[in-house]
Amino acid sequence: MDELRKDPTRGHWVLIRPKTKPPLQGDCPYCPGAEHLTGSEIAAYRKNGSAPNGPGWSVRVVPEGDAYFRIEWELVREGVGMFDMLTPRGASELIVESPRHDDTLATMDPDALEAVLWMYRDRLADLKRDNQIRDILVSRRHKKAGVAPHHPYSRVSAIPIVFDETRRELREAREYYQYKRRCLYCDMLRQEINAEDRVVRLTPAFAAIVPYAARGPLETWILPRPHGCSYEDALSAESARDLARLLSDYFRALAGGFGDPGFEMTLHTAPNLRSRILQGDWATIRDDYHWHIEILVQPERANRVGGIFVNETPPEVAAAQLRQAWPGAAGG
Ligand SMILES: [Zn+2]
Ligand SMILES: [Zn+2]
């Protein structure tokens, strides 16, 4: 049985799972016509009322083949002597973004990308109805080193604990708020928009910036300009359209101006507030946390000394390069 074990010296969790069989090679299980090769579909956007588990979809959600987290497992919390153990009850889903096998976020049109953004919202809202699920990570890898090119999909990982990185981020935001009574991200937005040099793009609802302490060249954050702690509550018809266009342009800039590098995009949104365990958990989260998207370019190349990232491209230079490569920009 797989187990989540906590390292008490660092406070982080490790998933211990015996090695399983490598996935079957052969036809792509995510292409139209191969729907029988995935588990039963969880959700899909379909035109013309096509039936589930067959072709006719534009975005389709299926369980991940070799899932790390499973909804059918019972949640068990156990002390093992001085240690803490949890069963990895949760969900591992793939959001298949397009019926076209060789589509990328740079080749899909903004409307198709917008549908994927709505599916992110739908899956977050649905999974958050389960109060044993504490946190959900929606992430998207493009060209992962050592992984063969595959059908375009995003991954949804829902887990019974809060991801270590989310926990750190929430703590920093809460402490900033306790001290200043203002949202850290709203303050950052205001300052970055005024300073301009790290702003890649401003739209009515979003700012794309290279963060002040970017961990690697071209790291970019997309921050919604209105405050809101959760993506699934904030997405509206206008903001989804705006975000889809912005992301589409960003990925086109990466593909066209920088040789289509690999990247990892992660959605940072509030954990499941229904899973509150202690009274007072996340008491100020609606005011102190601000959902956003982070994109790391070629994360596997990140250079580190101990825990410190070393970035050889100053963020101000990276922002200027991205502005230049932006679709429609002079020289882009
Ligand atoms: Zn395919
Ligand atoms: Zn804010």
Sequence-ordered SSE layout with sheet pairings:
Elements: E1 3-7, E2 12-16, E3 43-46, E4 57-63, E5 77-80, E6 83-86, E7 91-96, H1 110-127, E8 135-142, E9 153-159, H2 164-180, H3 184-195, E10 199-202, E11 206-209, E12 220-224, H4 231-234, H5 237-257, E13 263-268, H6 285-288, E14 292-297, E15 303-305, E16 308-310, H7 315-325
Antiparallel strand pairs: 1-2, 1-6, 3-4, 4-7, 5-6, 7-9, 8-9, 8-13, 10-11, 11-12, 12-14, 13-14, 15-16
Helix pairs in contact: 1-5
The structure holds zinc ion (2 copies).
The site of one zinc ion (ZN) has 5 residues, from α3.
Give an overview in words.
With 332 residues, the chain is of the alpha+beta class. The chain has one domain (21-65, 90-325): HIT-like (HIT family, subunit A), CATH 3.30.428.10. Helices cover 26% and strands 24% of the residues. The protein contains 7 helices and 16 strands. The strands form 3 sheets. It has a 10-stranded antiparallel β-sheet, with helices on both faces. Strands 2-1-6-5 form a 4-stranded antiparallel β-sheet, with no helix packed on it. A two-stranded antiparallel ribbon has the order 15-16. β5 (77-80) and β6 form a beta hairpin. α1 (110-127) crosses α5. It is globular and about 50 Å long. The mean pLDDT is 94. The structure holds zinc ion (ZN) (2 copies). The site of one zinc ion (ZN) has 5 residues, from loops.
